[in-house]
Hints:
Elements: H1 3-17, E1 20-27, H2 31-41, H3 46-54, H4 60-79, E2 88-97, E3 101-106, E4 112-117, E5 120-128, H5 129-133
Antiparallel strand pairs: 1-5, 2-5, 3-4
Helix pairs in contact: 3-4
Amino acid sequence: MGLRKRKSAEAIKEARKSEYFAKLRNVPTSPRKMRLVVDMVRGQEVFKALGILKFSNKEASNRVEKLLRSAIANWEQKNDRKAEAGELYVKTIFVDAAPMLKRLRPAPQGRGYRIRKRSNHVTVFVDTINNDKA
């Protein structure tokens, strides 16, 4: 690794130390369905977001709830204390497309219809409320 690339990598690594995030990869749900759930909690306080996800009737909300709990645990582990109500919020949350499984389905007159089984990656960043305003 060259000097310029090493310095750049170290700068990125230092910036990541002050960020608190969690990733969920290769979820077998279409990104469009997952974005409906993610949009409900974007910018919310984390415990309010957990309540929204708990009582949502979408299947994807269970996975996002578990991911958000993981991000909160990451924040607690890096700061050596428990998160209190009103302290953390969902800073950024986004859904990216993941690799697609392509299948064929028999169709009339000897044709085949393509079925695309989509999947996605979800990333969530949490931050303290007073840290953002400072």
